[in-house]
Design a protein that fits this description.
4 copies of one chain form a homotetramer.
Chain A lengths: L1 E2 L6 E6 L7 H14 L3 E5 L3 H6 L2 E3 L27 H13 L4 E6 L1 H14 L3 E5 L15 H22 L1 E7 L6 H10 L3 E3 L7 H13 L5 E6 L5 H11 L4 E6 L11 H19 L2 E2 L1 E6 L2 E6 H6 L6 H10 L2
Parallel strand pairs in A: 2-3, 2-5, 5-6, 6-12, 7-9, 7-10, 8-9
Antiparallel strand pairs in A: 1-11, 3-4, 12-13
């Protein structure tokens, strides 16, 4: 990470990739910190796509009133694979120059980290990333903006499903977020008191799942919940596999899907988004880039985007162990 | 409906069919009203199945403490198709006799209504039904126990999905409860501000859905929500049909599934369950059977089970019209 | 109620008095129904005060996007006692005339009903009232917009307090909305499983409250909840009275206060607001005034404002009885 | 911290002091970890009081089924000042001996820490503390069990109050938990977007509060929220002070009170309680005492109870600064 002296007077802010609860809170913090520091602040709509299309809007303190409890992002977001092409990035760069935007705060997940890093490298352009993703899969921070909210939403849903599971003595497979990572699924499983969690990082033989259910049944468990990360298998297939093994049990499945993305941000998400939004602007002004702001415990930490995009974050394997210990 | 003079001293209560939020509240009311009236009260586990298996538990006022805010049913429920066989019903009747249970309060939906009616006819046995079902599909009551809670759960889920829909300018198809009836879907659609509702009672050409979306787009709507009752089509198929028509739009779908069944009962559900539980016992003691207790506005009404099982309830078509009016 | 033929081309809509959840939903429905009927629609800010101050804003379909799940009222509301003066009403009338507003939809409670009625009488001016109030204290409708949401909020709060009450074997007095009416308190009490409800309509000797607690204790109840309508006494005073009587018990109190006004409107509130907003406009155009739209069961009903302002609505005394029956 | 070799075969678990959401989850974890490790586990009702009164109950895995989403504590809790007397502690010790309980897991806040420490010192008795308190005021852990849930409850309440504040252009003072510490109030203020936070650790001249409001008004803020920790002043007094200064403003106040204690535990609280419950048992068995288990970031940390009871935890002053930055 290197420090450069260039005067930043106008900052652009955008949300990119999949939406996450708390993106609005992060924008609010970036906007108000910028205004408070005497900078101009411009919203770029639909992520980098808006940079390409010249969708810029001047923002002020009142532009972000009343959004602290709103899910989603009022600047809108977009998956913009074309940004991988150099010509597209050049166009975005030129538009930023024309608009006199001197630095960029990007709010997004790992795809956005890659785009932001490339863009910063191409043009030696000041960029800071605020990690926002319901997956919590970014290296360099204990938590991403949106994760705590999304897990709470999923846990709340599993609580409801457990009402039905218990009332009918059923076994439920609940498919949750997590195409490549099991962090989300593991946390949902611990918090919802699930009997089993299946995640992409750990290969699981479905016969072992059946065996575990059998043992738990002997211990007096009449209903059970299996949390399945979407990248670790199909709920429907696991359900029909288990139904074959246990013809007398009622096996059901549920796919939580998009409800996990939305909703009123939780306390933790709001404080995290506010804190990271504020330090992102402060560090950008100091000339520090390209990096991601994050937290380690209660400390703010900075990680070079090169490291962020090249390092994989592992789920908490001790929590997998906790699930096993609690399922007796 | 005829009145008989026979002395009821011990009542049995059971929950049957699909679980619904508020079943616990109805049990609580039946138990405490019975105790208050000097009757004995016995819980029958797993619906009629428990009558067959002799799963009886003596209940008292404290047995139902602390369950008013619990989803599901602590007496458990069961789908028991074998109850359609006369020999099975005879066994249940004999078990009730042996246990000296003089009358039955059945808490359940339309399947339970059929079983309860048949059972009452077979043995001239006192039975009252408390309508509990998230579908609100029983003739003879404005609302069933659980319906208000389930719609609130679904609306809350659609609110979350709308956050994502709006952030990405997407069209979402949300599949909700309703295999044969659209009542649930229509209410969810009005309350969530959905642009379109598709229900089993009204045949819809998907080309018309596409046409409606096109018109709404011209009016400035960038994202939209379509509520689809599960019995009116498959969300996945409609999504792929619409995606073909609108290649530049992002069409997504979500199936709410089992989360709609569980959860802390709402105010309305709790009051309804308490009121109906209480009058069910009072009327049973007066010798009135076989009937269903229900509400019409703020009045309690009674409907003979013959009428309940033979009459179809129609959804509120004016509400379908409301959806259209609001989607401009 | 008499029907007049005058051509209505532009409607004004305002929210007045205390805010209630669902006011935004009612505005949305009024606006879109008006637009759909080819009318112009103008928002008047801060209730009748905005009519006095010429705070008019043109509204269109997009003005009310994304507010169906927002508490409060974006048109703002105001208590405006000056509206009782004739000169003030004349000024408002003249401003409406100048702005070419031909009719008014007023969204509010009983104070607003009085103002709306007077205004309509003074100038033979077309006015319709949509009942919106968390108290549900308006004659002519089973439910007001906001009531269902507010009761759910209060019940949710009492559920939380019961966790503490049970953990400590405490008695809690919870003061809820209701200066003159006990409807709200009674519904909260039934739904939260409270042991006692005290309301303005029924004089209660606190010695009897103490006696009831003593009896319930003998029946095995170690903790209890008393719901007190704010107009029926002070929670603090009742707490200290009971503490004197039961020195070994832990008596606590909590005043729910303003949290009961806000929040995301419930399903029931949203559907009610949408339905009433729509029929209000339709009837106004037909020349029907001055009346209130309301519901009786699932039917829409109309009541002349003279009757609304002069008739008192009684709480459901059978529900008081239910509380007693359940508290054993 | 010293390690002793004594064989632990039976563990006692109790909850003590003010209740906090997640206490049930911690009990569940202690119970199941104990059973899994081959130990016997005994629940002690009403905290140390139950040790005095011989209120012991044998627990097994099924005893803690279905409580992961229940607020409060099923073992009940009690404030037991008599425990400060040596003779009382001796009696408790003898009862534990008689019951053959070899070690104690205490779930509670700072009062419980003091009692637990003294008890362990008196008899060289193995005791571990799981920090559970909605105040988050214990030295030795980033978070206590219950804190995250309670802040979410308070933030949710302030969101509702803001609906009313905005609809009426009002200023609201919201009094929240925190007799001696401002940690809770500060987090609520950041997360709810409050304009001002007043905490016990920082002396504030109310004239400065008035001044700040005046400045914010000039910047276009028409409504505002002031979060007041209960130990930093009386909401009612501040309200009347400000009303005198701003006769044209509508100043209101609300005291959140006991609702902050209860409720379904949040994801974060549940995972924390599960993790700490598990390591508490594991370390106790290893002979490590008397200490508190806690977290620093994602790491589990151990702090000697002497240090816990003698060190004060400071609130996050940078978060106070964040509130100021965001309130423009």
């Amino acid at each position: 990470m290197y420090i450069m002296k260039r005067k930043i007077k106008k900052i652009g802010v955008l949300t990119s990739g999949g939406d996450a609860p708390g993106m609005n809170v992060a924008i609010r913090s970036v906007v108000r910190t910028s205004i408070g520091a005497g900078l101009s602040i411009v919203g770029i709509e639909k992520g980098f796509r808006g940079g390409y299309d010249n969708s810029f809007i001047e923002l002020n303190s009142r532009s972000v009133s009343g959004i602290i409890n709103q899910g989603g992002t009022f600047l809108k977001t977009f998956r913009f694979p074309e940004f991988a092409e150099k010509t597209v990035r050049v166009k975005v760069y030129e538009n930023l120059k024309k608009t006199e935007i001197d630095g960029l705060v990007v709010i997004g997940g790992d795809g956005s980290a890659k785009g932001a890093f490339k863009f910063s490298q191409d043009f030696d352009y000041p960029v800071v990333l605020i990690p926002a993703s319901i997956d919590n899969d970014l290296y360099g921070t204990d938590y991403t903006v949106g994760f705590d909210t999304a897990v709470n939403t999923a846990v709340d849903a599993v609580d409801k499903i457990r009402d039905t599971a218990t009332s009918h003595d059923r076994t439920f497979i609940v498919e949750v977020m997590g195409k490549e990572k099991g962090y989300f699924a593991i946390e949902v499983a611990v918090a919802s008191g699930a009997e089993i969690a299946i995640v992409p990082e750990v290969v699981v033989d479905w016969n072992d799942v059946a065996e575990t259910l059998k043992v738990q049944e002997l211990m007096g468990k009449k209903s059970s919940i299996i949390i399945l990360a979407e990248g670790a298998g199909k709920a429907q297939e696991l359900a029909s596999f288990l139904q074959d093994r246990f013809p007398n049990r009622q096996i059901r499945y549920s796919i939580l899907g998009y409800i996990q993305r939305g909703g009123n941000p939780s306390y933790f998400t709001r404080v995290l988004a506010t804190k990271l939004g504020s330090v992102a602007v402060e560090q950008l002004v100091l000339g520090k880039f390209p990096f991601m702001v994050g937290v380690k415990g209660s400390e703010v930490v900075y990680t070079h985007l090169k490291k962020v995009v090249s390092t994989s974050k592992l789920p908490d394997m001790e929590h997998l162990d906790l699930i096993r210990k609690m399922s007796i």
